[in-house]
Each structure stands twice: as C-alpha cells, then as structure tokens.
Design a protein that fits this description.
This protein is of the alpha/beta class and 389 residues long. The protein contains 16 helices and 13 strands. Strands 3-2-1-4-5-6-7 form a seven-stranded parallel sheet, with helices on both faces. The two termini are 39 Å apart. The N terminus is likely disordered.
Length: 389
Amino acid sequence: MKAQTKHIATKIDISPSFQPGERASLRIIISGGGTGGHIFPAISIANALKAADSNINILFVGASDRMEMEKVPAAGYKIIGLPVAGFQRKKLQKNFMVAVKLLRSIQIANKIIKDFKPHIVIGVGGYASGPMLRAANKKGIPTVIQEQNSYAGITNKYLAKKANKIFVAYEGMEKYFPKEKIMIVGNPVRKDLENIDSKRNEGLSYFGLEQGKITILSIGGSLGARTINQSIINSLVNIGRSNIQWIWQSGSHYFADAKQILETSGFKNIKLFDFISRMDLAYAAADIVISRAGASSISELCIAAKPAILIPSPNVAEDHQTKNASALVIKDAAIMVYDVEAKNNLVKKALELASDVELQKKLALNISNMALHHSAENIAKTILKIVKN
C-alpha cells in the first residue's frame, strides 16, 4: 500500500507554479471521500471555486483504495491517495494495520502540506479528511468542514475544534459543533437538477414511458441496495398488474438477477437499469421517488421537490441515515420505511402513495421548503472570504 501511495504522489506535480507576469493562484486542498455522498458534493464545491476564480489551483486528497481515485480525475481534478482505512469495530485484530496506515497517512499529509502550500484545506468527510486537516491545523493553515448529514461523525466532531467554519445542511447541529462556527448552506447538488419540471416530457421519452401515468423511480446507488431490490422482486406481480410505471435502478451488483426475473415476468411497465447517467431526466419523469436516506440523495430530492419514500440503510455509522430521514418525516416532507419492514411494506406504501394525489402534493411542497439552493456557490464564496481575510 505504501508503494501504491508513493506511486500516485510522484505522478502528480503539486508544486505551486505560475508563469512570469501572472498572479500566484490560490491553492486549495479538498480532502475526503469514500462514498458518492462525500465525493460529488466535493466536486461541486471545486467547480464552484473554479467558477469564482479560474486561477485557483485545487488538489484533492482521498483514500487510495476508494472510489474518489476514479471519480475525481474523471471530473478533471488531480488527486493523491492516502493509505488510510477505517477503524474495524467487529474485527479488532485488524486495527493494528489500521493504525500503521494512519501513521503513514499522517506522514504523507504533512509532506503534501509542505509541498503544495495550501491557503486553506476543506474536509468533506471520509477517512482521508482526518490526517489532512490535522496536518493543516498543525501548520496554522485555515480549515473548513462540510458535514452532509444530520448526525456528525467522530472525525468531523474532532476536527471542528480548530475549523474556521463548518458548513451544514440541517438545523440543530450546534449539539455537535460550536454554534458560532456553523453556517447552514445545504448540501451541494448537481446543477442539472435545478428546474427539472421543464424536462418531464424529455424524461418520459428517454425512459420509454407513457404520458399520463404515475411514475415511480427507485434508486439504490451505483452498486445497488439489496433491500430495495428484494422488495421490488417480492412484489413484482403487484407492480406489473398496477396502472403505474416504474423506473428500477438496481445497481450493478443486482442487475443480472433482476433482469432475468423481470424478463421471465413479461411485465412491460417496469424499466430496469443497472445505472442511470441522466438522473436529471429520471427525477423529471418521476412522480414518486424511493431511495436510501444518504445526505446527498435527500438534498437532491429537496431540490427536485419530489414526494419520497426513504429506506435508511442500517449499514452506516451511527445509523445516521435514519436520523437524516427523521429530519424530513417530522416535517411531513417524506415517508420512512425501516429496512427490516421494507420487503413486506415498501411496494405497498408506494402503490398507496401513487393513488393519493393530495398526499403527493403535501410531501412535494414540504420537501421543497427544505431545499437550500446554490449551496456550492455559497460555500465557495465563504471559503474565498476566509482566505482573503
């Protein structure tokens, strides 16, 4: 792992250089990742920073074996990987290597700070943000944190003590962070999700759907969500015989089995995809969305103003997805179905909601009221203000 990380670092020139006559660019590190919920908001922030000042030099630092190593370069940014890994709660014997990787990551983070000389470091959550922000704090470099969830993780709570600003998406975060540092801005989402109502016809055509029918979209991430997929399979006959249309994003892990089962059923009102590249058109076509309760997913639903049924994943730290979903449920902005109940109740709830137009309108209105627009731009403006001050 050490060799891999060194190889990644040596391939990237991170020295702060500029041509004679040009002004020196601001240098910013964005650190974190691990999941799309961390990576895509980070890229949105980077894009907003570049839009505000094209001369900004941005370097990402992630975990060397996680998806940011692929997604960040695809978005046009340089990234260095750290060999950092998460603490093993169930396999304690593996934590010796976790500690070794952490120490090595701290060494590499210190070298990155020395070589790149950032003006500010942004932590977006995930394993890599800890060593990177710690190294910046030791050198007196300003740091900020972007916390996507309604429940703050251990790393961000620790890093918040020395952070200049903490960007959050939910109210009540002062129970985790110093109140004077908090700024409620929402979670950055893709720009193409703004004003999707005008894309409805395009969305229906894109997915081969009919006009005038209620459309349900179920999404489970790029790999898929076992519970959501199994719930659909268990109730496939009920869906197939209904008068609704269903866009089923199964994820790559479950696509082959789902495809075989769907083809055997012969139902034509269910459109199956392993991955959906045009999520803007998927949201535009949908009247109801079924989703896990990750922070980014919820932020997208708020911007898209779609009635939602949320199934929190039980396989996340501190059960934070249940806390995310509950923040909407208490405001009548979404329906929550617990993971253990979904296989029997999810499709039933979805079909009931499909027949209740008034409830759809109520949920759509309330969730849209929770949307915070221009999050990435507001974060970028504040970051640049901190640097210039």
